Amino acid sequence: MALDRDPAARTTGPVLAPARRALAAMGMGAVLAAGLAGCGSGGDRASEPAPTTRPPRSSTTTTQATVPPLAPGMRLVAEAVVPQVAVFDEPGAPKPSRTLANPTPTPAPLVFLVEERRPDGWLEVDLPIRPNGSTGWIRAETVSLAQTGYRVVVELGAHRLTLYDRDRTVVQVPVGVGVSETPTPGGVYYIKELLRPPDPGGAYGPYAYGLSGFSNVLTSFGGGDGVIGIHGTDDPSSIGRDVSHGCIRIGNDVITRLVETIGLPLGTPVEIRS
Prior knowledge:
Radius of gyration: 18 Å
Distance between the termini: 41 Å
Strand order of the largest sheet: 11-10-9-18-13-14-15-17
CATH topology of the largest domain: L,D-transpeptidase catalytic domain-like
Number of domains: 2
Largest sheet: 8 strands, mixed
CATH superfamily of the largest domain: L,D-transpeptidase catalytic domain-like
Number of helices: 3
CATH architecture of the largest domain: Beta Barrel
């Protein structure tokens, strides 16, 4: 996207296009080991980019200049349109507390889930950093905005994942979650990236969603920082049990449906409950 264009004229298709559009095109052994507090090892072949497809039906793309009020059940998602996004501790702070790179190291587009949008051009967003639950303020001109009605709820005790489109249940399936020594952390996160392992029959299945949250126990995993993910598995018998280092395992047919048929967008909220 050209950075010399007027930000108000940019639309936000890349955010709410199905997340497979943003697949990281790099070696998945490094990405999955460094990216996810996962349940196995990846390969070392390069992943392949997926084809571009249209936004899902439940999502509404907007321009930065005119973002309509959120309808019930919708959430606002932001995608960076600059190489570095400055994050501030409060609106109007003289200096940022940090900057986040776009694209991310995986690489993937830098996206945020928006908690508040102020009329003076400030956005409060969830941050994909430690500690879990971190928020910050960014300038609206550094991102493009869109809305989505999708949300994922993971119930750890019930070993169940439910995908909603606003109030409608779209998918409900059993999942494998973290063992007591490396539990899956509760909280509200969002999908920040989509990865394609080189071996669809391997430990991570055909796809893996990286979330904005991190393990509370593993501060490092395979050289990475313990990102929590939702991914397929080469062991269907592990689904419905406490089995992982913190990641959420689902059937390969299910994650394929989420990616290829439903097309969950980056920024989709993911609530993990006890």
